[in-house]
Amino acid sequence: MLAVKARLILAGIFLVFHSLAANAQQAGLKVLISADMEGVADVTNWKIDSQPASRDYVQMRRLMTNEVNAAVTAAFDAGATEVTVADSHGDFANLDPEALDPRCNLVRGWPRPLGMMQGLTTDTAAIVCASRIPVR
């Protein structure tokens, strides 16, 4: 499942990058990845899987970090020169910083004036919303 998501993310990033103006490509491609836990492969129940005190939270946190790493790799493979990841689930402190791809910049915790889009700048070339499928 992770490999399929990584391929889809890579295809989406590739299409975005190739639709950008040539001068933006010359200046470098900055990507913002906003990552939420709902929608991560295997997160099926909000109360059981994605809350810090829940039974499966530690495992889901690891899966979320793995999926974000796949998106970071896809972004760099598609030509990104800089990738910022905004941890956008709950208290904004769920990704494991030690397991996260060291090439990316991590934005986590509060306060965050831009919320889930913290890290967005005027020179951001693409935004990837990772794991945003609602869970019931």
Describe the protein in words.
The protein has 136 residues and is α/β, with parallel strands linked by helices. The protein has a single domain (2-7, 28-130), classed as Rossmann fold. 35% of the residues lie in helices and 16% in strands. It has helices at 2-18, 22-27, 46-49, 57-77; strands at residues 30-35, 82-87, 105-107, 124-130. The longest helix has 21 residues, at 57-77. Residues 18-24 have low confidence and may be disordered.
Q: In brief, what are we looking at here?
A:
This protein is of the alpha/beta class and 136 residues long.
Number of distinct helices: 4
Side by side, the strands of the main sheet go 3-2-1-4
CATH domain topology: Rossmann fold
Average pLDDT taken over every residue: 82
Secondary structural class: alpha/beta
Largest sheet: 4 strands, parallel
CATH architecture: 3-Layer(aba) Sandwich
Helix and strand element order: HHEHHEEE
Report the portion of residues in β strands. 15-25%
Give helix % range. Answer: 25-40%
Q: Which word captures the global form?
A: globular
| Distance between the ends | 19 Å
Number of domains: 1
- CATH C-level class is Alpha Beta
CATH homologous superfamily title: Dipeptide transport protein
Instruction: Tell me how many strands there are.
Output: 4
Radius of gyration: 15 Å
Low-confidence residue ranges: 18-24
